[in-house]
Write a structure and sequence with these properties.
The chain is of the alpha+beta class. It has 21 helices and 5 strands. About 75% of the residues lie in helices and about 5% in strands. It has a 5-stranded mixed beta sheet with strand order 1-2-3-5-4.
Length: about 550
């Protein structure tokens, strides 16, 4: 109604409020971003520079929650800071500086002057009577000293920030400071005190629906329980870490936010393309007028023809360039999502293997060395529980990042996958391999492995087949992969438009420059054929002159 009545200023403020309500309800989500971008649009229509750049500040802070959006967050925050410095709006300058300081914490190595910049920002907050910004600056200082492994200084600043945050009743900042105090306790090897602080922070983060904070708190809580010897709770919290990670990085909401900024660039390119086409039409009108004016001159006719030909070539080049840029942005978006998923899987797999897995192995060795001291009734159950925990940890770690894939390559990894699935399923899986597979790039090997894994899982879950056959055929130009089963069959006309798993397979194969064909018939099984160009799969070698 406000937009229809052209009350754009009120509409911009309403969209800003709507964004905050969405965030309170759903946490980090695309609906909040849609609202903030709509608010930005209507502040622009009103010519309200203060509201417009304040929204830049809000969007920059929101993007900073996601590591993959930090580059865009920095762009928004710097533009906001430049405007507020020109207009001498110091409270907003302080907020912009804090947003940029927050992003700087994630850089490796950490910028050497970060502590000094944060102290300056904290003094400015005191000077201009901004207690909220002062509390946030102190909290960032605490984290900076934690990253520098100076727990005493971190405790000092986190405690000061917590005092101000409690006075202001800022729940998310209170939770953040409890988290930092928990890290200080863990630095001092006070694991129980650390767990108590983490739990306070976790309860506040859960109330705020902050998936990012809950993910980090779960990871550190699992580590603290592991240090106390409580491996059951350590295992439970490790599973929570995995769950929150999947929710944050793999959810459609998070992917949509990452794509949103790229989509806005694509739309900008589309507008530029429209302008080029409009200029082309105007040029054609002008060329017609020139043609009429110089019809009596042969030289003029040839000149006009030449100009028109050149203009068409330029227009065509502009169009091709715009289409290439759009495609590059789409590929960049897909690469960011895939790298984020695989990177987070690898990190969690390493944490499980190097942390919890090693601790469980140490316990098993200790118990085996003291078998004679334990009652007989305790030996067998205890060994059984430890074996099951070790096996479960290895299975989770291997599923996140298969050891055979990174060590031996694609074909041995697929053989290992088929062998393991044969051990736990009634369905018989067969892998046939023809031709010598050359060394593949890590990205291509992981994508092919995930695609085959997804197809086998679908066949085992839904097809009710007796036999599933995987064939891998390699020559110098092409790699062909087929997965066939003798199960129930499927209606792919409907599944291709509904299944997110199938869409995921198609996007990965398209990214590798390949094609996938699906064929299913009720009662006669399912067949999937994938064709991939070898040129895009092979590992590239860097030659040093």
């Amino acid at each position: 109604m406000l937009v229809q009545d052209k009350l754009y200023s009120q509409a911009a403020k309403a969209y800003d409020s709507l964004g905050k309500l969405y965030h309170r309800q759903y946490g980090y989500n695309k609906y909040t971003m849609d609202s903030y971008l709509s608010s930005l649009k209507y502040f622009s229509l009103m010519g309200d520079s203060l509201g417009y750049f304040n929204q830049y500040l809000v969007i920059g802070d929101y993007y900073s929650q996601d590591y993959f959006m930090h580059a865009y967050a920095e762009q928004y925050l710097k533009k906001a800071q430049q405007y507020f410095e020109r207009t001498h709006n110091m409270p907003k300058v302080i907020e912009s500086r804090l947003g940029l300081h927050n992003i700087a914490h994630h850089l490796e190595p950490m910028p050497p002057g970060l502590k000094t910049h944060l102290r300056v920002t904290e003094r400015l907050s005191v000077q201009y009577k901004q207690p909220y910004s002062q509390a946030y600056a102190l909290s960032l200082l605490a984290n900076t000293y934690l990253l520098s492994k100076q727990p005493d200084s971190a405790y000092y600043f986190a405690s000061r920030s917590l005092t101000i945050s409690n006075q202001l009743n800022v729940k998310w900042l209170i939770g953040l400071n409890h988290f930092y105090l928990g890290l200080v306790e863990q630095f001092k090897d006070h694991s129980l005190a650390a767990i108590e602080a983490y739990q306070k922070s976790y309860n506040l983060s859960k109330a705020e629906n902050s998936l990012g904070m809950m993910r980090e708190l779960s990871r550190h809580t699992a580590d603290s329980y592991s240090r106390t010897g409580d491996y059951k709770n350590a295992y439970d919290w490790s599973l929570k870490t995995l769950d929150y990670t999947v929710q944050f990085y793999a959810s459609e909401q998070t992917k949509s936010i990452r794509l949103q900024e790229l989509d806005s660039q694509i739309k900008t390119l589309a507008v530029e393309k429209q302008l080029v086409e409009e200029q082309s039409r105007n040029q054609n009108v002008l060329n017609s007028a020139l043609f009429i004016g110089f019809i009596i001159s042969i030289i003029g006719v040839f000149t006009l023809a030449y100009l028109r030909r050149q203009q068409k070539l330029i227009d065509h080049q502009h169009t091709v360039i715009a289409q290439q840029q759009i495609r590059q942005l789409e590929l960049k978006s897909l690469r960011a999502m895939i790298e984020g998923q695989e990177g987070e899987r690898s990190r969690i797999a390493r944490d499980l293997h190097d942390g919890l897995g090693i601790q469980l192995s140490r316990i098993k060795l200790f118990i085996e060395a003291h078998q004679e001291e334990l009652p007989l009734s305790f030996k067998e159950p205890l060994n059984q529980f430890l074996d099951e925990a070790c096996t479960e940890t290895r299975l989770i770690s291997n599923d996140l990042r298969p050891y055979a894939l990174s060590t031996f390559g694609l074909v041995p990894a697929l053989e290992d996958l088929v062998q393991k699935l044969n051990l736990v399923n009634k369905t018989k899986l067969i892998l046939d391999h023809y031709g010598e597979m050359p060394p593949l790039g890590d990205e291509a090997a992981v994508m092919i492995y995930r695609v085959v894994q997804e197809l086998l899982n679908n066949a085992l879950k839904h097809a009710h087949a007796q036999v599933v056959t995987v064939q891998l055929m390699v020559n110098e130009e092409t790699t062909l992969i087929s997965v066939d089963d003798d199960g129930l069959g499927a209606d792919f006309d409907n599944l291709l438009s509904k299944g997110s798993g199938i869409a995921n397979i198609q996007s990965r194969i398209a990214y590798l420059g390949g094609h996938v064909m699906w064929h299913g018939e009720a009662g006669k099984g399912t067949s999937v054929m994938i064709s991939l160009p070898m040129q895009k799969l092979q590992k590239t070698e860097v030659l040093v002159a």
